[in-house]
Amino acid sequence: MSKNLSELSGREGLENNLFDRMGKLAEPDGTPSVEELDALAEEFLIGSSTTYGTTTFYDFLKPENKGKKAYVCNGTACVCAGTQDNVTEQLKKHLSEDEIGHMTCLGRCHENSAFNYGGRNYSGSALNELDSIIESKSGVQDNYNVQVAGKEILTEEFTSIDAYYASFKSALKKNSGDMLEEIKTSNVRGRGGAGFPMGLKLGFCRNTESDTKFIICNADEGDPGAYSDRYLLEQRPHSVLYGMLIAGYVTHANWGVLYIRAEYPDAAEIIQKEIDALREVGLIGDNIDGSGFNFDFKIIRAQGSYICGEETALINSIEGQRPEVRVRPPYPAQQGLFNKPTIVNNVETLASLHFIIENGGSAWKAIGTERSSGTKLVCLDSFFNKPGIYEVEMGTSLSTVINELGGGFKTSIKAMQIGGPLGGLVPISKIDDLTIDFESFTNNGFLLGHASIICIPETMPMIDFLEHLFDFAAYESCGKCFPCRLGTKRGHELLKKANTSDYKISKKLFKDLLNTLEEGSLCAHGGGIPLPVKNAMHYFEDEMKGYFE
Ligand SMILES: Cc1cc2nc3c(=O)[nH]c(=O)nc-3n(C[C@H](O)[C@H](O)[C@H](O)COP(=O)(O)O)c2cc1C
Ligand code: SF4
């Protein structure tokens, strides 16, 4: 059935996109009316259950969103910093409780106290200017350190479209297969979490016959603690657009879709402006620079759901279906958006292509370690003396990142969650054992993921952290498979009960729960949550044992 829905949604192409239309219907008062959803269903020849089922899934489309004016960030970094109760209290002086909702996360992890008002994001000391913010709704650009240790690639200053796209124009004169070989030689691996080799994925898509193919930029950066994709989209937008153009050229795709999260309103505006600039100089559209290659972009604004960062849920989302994870195979590179071959790549992965095309694959391969090549952006939260984004060569020691680049911790820290909610929980004692690369983290029982670092202060009980983690996992579960749908909820209930009463959790039951999640879940959401929990049980056994039988 969902395959048919993909076809029906695809009939209208990207220009008249079903999900886009749902978002527009929600703009006036936060949720589309049932009558509007019925009319949309009729227009797209689908059942009302689909339009209704889809909109009720998303934080910013569902009826509960009606009338919301402000959203308080409840991402892990803000929770660990303990700033958000005050944010809610301050907002309540201006707004009723019903007008305040939640957003996870605004990517302001470097200074916290994050909130969204009237479609704009604020953080840090902005809370002191609430009166004028509510009056003028002006956005306040945040500042954070951006520094490089080693080769400067992703953070390199942008000069002009002419200079930046010169290598794209010469690539168009070369064989697209040769360009793909450069990407394969670089061995650039996906930065969105799984570390899959980009060249291989592009090759699968290139070899699948189809008159229509898509390149999707996964700009749904939902991992609390990570704001490096936001940085690239807002401060280095051409690195992303360039990467998508090259990916399109080597796979014979003609459409690039940027799926940008609603929590990053500035990013979507900036990217649209730069797309328009490229159109003006003829670098997008038909027959680019006389090469015969056609390519255009479409921005899809997400509507508040962590699971839409998972590539198949993301595809369902763009199609206007309920964003449940798809069973693989078929993989998106063979059958993705509207059942057509589709590449889904992370923002940072795409941003690496400018250097690779300009300098050759072996130049990228020469940086970093044997299996983790190139540079990586690492995000540090507000517990560091110098919070911000640091570009480091793969293989850089974690202690260099923490102590030299980040300037050490501001206060006593007991652990760090690195790589998002599905990443590991690294105790302070392991800092000297780790380097920033996929292998080091995996070999030590952690996960590099997107390499964002959130600190857990000494003062925060580990059980509070785990309760928050399970709550997040349960709320964001897509609900498709029951180990995750039920397991994340049960995990949260058990920890909450043990945290707030004399109840002691059965060790056996808890172990079974983690194993069921790990082995029975359809995707890495349910499958990944046990990792940080197991790390916490292992490294903080003394602190945790009082909550177990
Ligand atoms: C629960 C979940 C959330 C994810 N969120 C993101 C995300 O926000 N951004 C992202 O690029 N990849 C995310 N991924 C990984 C994507 O499914 C996919 O692997 C990635 O976009 C592929 O791009 P890459 O090869 O460039 O990393 C997520 C995966 C899971 C299981
Ligand atoms: S593991 Fe969770 S998020 Fe993934 S498919 Fe199953 S229910 Fe959905």
Strand-residue proportion = 5-15%
Q: How many domains in all? A: 5
Instruction: Name the poorly predicted regions.
Output: none
CATH topology of the largest domain: Rossmann fold
CA radius of gyration: 23 Å
Structural class computed from helices and strand pairing: alpha/beta
Amino- and carboxy-terminal Cα gap? 47 Å
Please give a quick description of this structure.
The protein has 549 residues and is of the alpha/beta class.
List keywords for this structure.
549 residues; alpha/beta; Rossmann fold; 5 domains; 6-stranded mixed sheet; 4-stranded mixed sheet; 26 helices; 13% strand; binds flavin mononucleotide; binds iron/sulfur cluster
Describe the SSE topology.
Blueprint: H1 2-11, H2 18-26, H3 34-43, H4 48-55, E1 70-73, H5 76-81, H6 84-92, E2 100-103, E3 115-117, E4 120-122, H7 130-136, E5 145-149, H8 161-164, H9 166-173, H10 176-186, H11 198-206, E6 214-219, H12 228-235, H13 237-251, E7 255-260, H14 265-280, E8 296-301, H15 311-318, E9 342-346, H16 347-351, H17 353-359, H18 361-365, E10 375-380, E11 388-393, H19 398-405, E12 413-418, E13 424-427, H20 438-443, E14 452-457, H21 462-476, H22 482-500, H23 507-520, H24 524-528, H25 530-539, H26 541-544
Parallel strand pairs: 1-2, 5-11, 6-7, 6-9, 7-8, 10-14
Antiparallel strand pairs: 1-3, 3-4, 10-11, 12-13, 12-14
Helix pairs in contact: 3-4, 10-11, 10-13, 12-13, 21-22, 22-23
